[in-house]
Amino acid sequence: MARLIFITGGVVSSLGKGLASAALGALLQARGYRVRLRKLDPYLNVDPGTMSPFQHGEVYVTDDGAETDLDLGHYERFTAVSSAKSDNITAGSIYQRVIDKERKGGYLGRTVQVIPHVTDAIKEFVMTGEDEVDFLLVEIGGTVGDIEGLPFFEAIRQLGNELGHERAAFVHLTLVPYIETAGELKTKPTQHSVKELRSIGIQPDILLCRASVPIPEDERRKIALFCNVRKECVIQGLDFPTIYSAPIRYHQEGFDTQVLKVFGITDAPEPDLSRWNWVVDRVTNPEGEVRIAVVGKYMQVKDSYKSLSEALTHGGLANNVKVHMDWIDSEIFERDDAAVYLENVHGILVPGGFGERGTEGKIEAVKFARERRVPFFGICYGLHMAVIEAARDLAGLEGAGTTENGHPRHPVIALMTEWTKGNAIETRKEDADMGGTMRLGAYTAMLKPGSRVAEIYGANEISERHRHRYEVNVGYTRQLAEHGFQVSGWSPDGKLPEIMEFPDHPWFIGVQFHPELKSRPFAPHPLFASFVAAAVKQGRLV
Ligand code: GLN
After folding, report:
1. What is the CATH number of the domain that holds 98?
2. Are the CB atoms for 441 and 66 separated by under 8 Å?
3. Which of 59, 379, 467 maximizes ligand 1 atoms within 8 Å of its Cβ, making it the mutation to test the pocket?
4. How many A from CA of 93 to the centre of ligand 1?
5. Among 13-17, 128-132, 229-233, where is mean pLDDT lowest?
6. Ligand 1 atom 3: residue of nearest CA
7. Quick one: 294 and 274 in the same domain?
8. Same domain, yes or no, for 389 and 431?
9. What percent of the chain has pLDDT above 70?
10. Is 185 in the pocket of ligand 1 (CB under 6 A)?
11. Picking from 203-207, 303-307, 394-398, which range would have the lowest pLDDT averaged per residue?
12. Is 198 within a domain?
């Protein structure tokens, strides 16, 4: 039977609730407990898969093929526990379940209501498989007071009541702003936020107070008094020099100790934080720096490439260097010479993406990397761009392109309609629902013995996560190989190219999947470690 920890937020969003949850998960794990983290998102989209990265940031994909909130990426990076479909749900998906059940007559003619039917569906989701872990951490998206969040708050209130204090704790994250002109920290927003929470029946046990300067004793006492919590349970959360110091810092503030105390646990082993100390030491004391250009589309919103930037950082940890990322909007290369922006970088990465805008610019970036022999890493759409570039410039296939953007004369990237996964045949239709047509989740790939990727992975068989509709068209792979661009990883049925590389280039690899999703600070993904190593080498040349 797991103990449940509910994490809610107040005052404003973007205070780092996902990170605090992930850090708490890591701390409990470091004390030897089994943990799982879940996220409840109050918006009405059925999943974030169809939301623009400008709106929502990255879509994080799990092994079992769920398109989820990017906080699940934090959870995985901090705890190394693979997330699953059952770890993220939206209000839209909950309502869809309830309505589907109603249509099938599942409510036996009763009036279907938010309480108890929607709240029951939420509780059922939260409690699924709870007996497999010691602590289940459940983060509620948004802030208290949001209309669409109400059914979720009501559901966790009920759960708190049903499970009792021995099995449920409530953590509330707020902001204690510093008012420059008054030279003071203000506790009022926290008081109001907790008042709001209590008005819907939830008394927080722990308050995590984000502040830009240390919170003095007096202010903590005041918060404790007005919010009805013990003073030691007012935990300050200052800004971190790196997100990976969160477990260490929160432990120093007593976060995990107080959470355990809420459950009456006072004899837990001290957490082993050695791996976190190692990561923080590496992040803060690099031996050098490399510069990587990331050429994509959603550059204004860094969260769109959250896992990618983390994976590059991890690649830096593996090589003891800091990775400086230049985020470049590819459209620039459709007007200006790519050399101006790319001449001083040590590696070029074209990440995943969708749609036509900016593609010609990405192709320019690929061309620069190939011709100037700069390490190049193409991820998903980045691989597609590399294939188009090679088809046009090396194989002389004028008008080569992807069917994602129309009807090119040479569809070197196209929709594959059928392949096998294990013993099952999977198919895709061009006109299916958005979100229903993607190749999603973990797939096995077989690596060509002797290829660079086989050497990098140190394996002949790998599993990586996918999220895309289009594939490299096998009808063109021979022609591309004749010009040096070879397939070095295939789906087990030999129908889908998964990895391509130029063996003659210092480092030029394109992958159909998203390796960034599986990279962890203490286990950097081999492709990122190797790419950054190639960039380090390049740095010595220039
Ligand atoms: N837009 C491409 C596709 O759907 C690539 C997707 C991606 O980069 N994740 O196939």
Report:
1. 3.40.50.300
2. yes
3. 467
4. 24
5. 13-17
6. 468
7. no
8. yes
9. 96
10. no
11. 303-307
12. yes
* Domain around 13: 3-278
514 and 439 together in one domain? yes
**pLDDT for res 55:** 73
Q: What is the pLDDT of residues 164-196, one digit of tens each?
A: 999 999 999 999 999 999 889 999 999 999 999
Q: What is d(CA 245, CA 126) in angstroms, rounded to the nearest whole number?
A: 29
Residue 438 CA, ligand 1 centroid: distance in Å: 9
The string of DSSP codes covering 255-323 is HHHHHHHHTT---PPPP--HHHHHHHHHHHS-SEEEEEEEEES-TT-GGGGHHHHHHHHHHHHHHTEEE
Domain final residue pick, 236, 257, 278 = 278
Residue 542: pLDDT above 60? no
354 lines ligand 1 (CB under 6 A): yes
Q: Tell whether 362 and 497 lie within a shared domain.
A: yes
Closest ligand 1 atom, residue 382 Cα: 8
Ligand 1 neighbour 305 (Cβ under 6 A): no
Higher local confidence (pLDDT), 336 or 214: 214
In which band, very low, low, confident or very high, does the pLDDT at 539 lie, cut at 50, 70 and 90? confident
Query: What is the per-residue pLDDT for 303?
Result: 82
CA of 150 from ligand 1 middle (Å) equals: 35
Ligand 1 contacts CB of residue 466 (under 6 A): no
- CA 277/CA 262 separation, integer angstroms: 27
For residue 354, how far is its CA from the centre of ligand 1 (angstroms)?
5
- Same domain for 250 and 303, yes or no, is no
Ligand 1 pocket member 378 (CB < 6 A): no
User: What is the 383 CA–ligand 1 centroid distance (Å)?
Assistant: 9
Determine if ligand 1 sits within 6 Å of the CB of residue 6.
no
380 and 448 share one domain:
yes
Q: What confidence score (pLDDT) does residue 318 get?
A: 96
pLDDT band with cut points at 50, 70 and 90 for residue 418 = low
Is 284 within a domain? no
Query: Is position 283 within any domain?
Result: no
| Domains of the chain: total | 2
Active-site amino acid positions: 380, 514, 516
| Statement to judge: residues 21 and 153 lie in one domain | yes
DSSP string of 322-367, one letter each residue: EEEEEEEEGGGGGTS-HHHHHTT-SEEEE----SSTTHHHHHHHHH
CATH number at residue 480: 3.40.50.880
Q: Give the pTM.
A: 0.93
